[in-house]
Each structure stands twice: as structure tokens, then as C-alpha cells.
Amino acid sequence: MKTYSTMKTKQWISGLALAAVMVTTQVACDSKKENKAEEVQEQREDLNEAQAEGDTSDIRENKEELDSAKAEYDSAVKEERKN
Fold it and tell me: Cβ neighbours of residue 61 under 8 Å, at least 6 residues apart?
């Protein structure tokens, strides 16, 4: 009977470890998407500031950075959907 109890304990430990890994992975994915969303927001704010100042070179540069941040966000969302 002692062997059965040991096996049962190992199964519980393995199950809990697997659950912890799954939760950690999910949190990491959410973080990545959230970080990309924050980056898009920051770039949008920078673009708005440049437009308010009227500096065309800054507007162009900030628009490119915003487009790049949006593309990275879209990629993170697609990657999350695959998982």
C-alpha cells in the first residue's frame, strides 16, 4: 500500500507542477500583448505631440514608429491566438 500512496502523491505533485507551468505561460503571453499595447499607446501620444508642434520630420518619424509598434502588437496578438 505504501507504493500506491507514493504514486498517488507523485501524480498530485506532477499535476500541480503542470498547472503552474500552464498558468505561468498564459501570464507571460498576456504580459507580452499588454506591453505591446502600451508601446502603441506611447507612440500614439508621441505622434500627437509632434502633430501639435507641427514639426513635419518628427511627425513622419513618429508615424513610422507608431506603425512599427502596431505591427508588433498585431504579431503578438496572432501569436497568442495560435497558443
Answer: 50
Q: What is the pLDDT of residue 1?
A: 44
Residue with cell 513618429: 62
Cell of residue 6, nine digits: 507514493
- Residues 39, 68 contacting (CB under 8 angstroms): no
Q: Note whether 62 and 50 are within 8 A (CB).
A: yes
**Measured between alpha carbons, how far is residue 39 from residues 4, 51, 83 in Å?**
53, 18, 22
Q: Are 59 and 47 in contact (CB under 8 A)?
A: yes
Sign of the torsion angle spanned by Cα atoms 39, 42, 47, 48? positive
pTM (global) more than 0.70 = no
Taking the C-alpha atoms of residue 55 and residue 69, their distance in angstroms, rounded to an integer, is 21
Grid cell at residue 78: 496572432
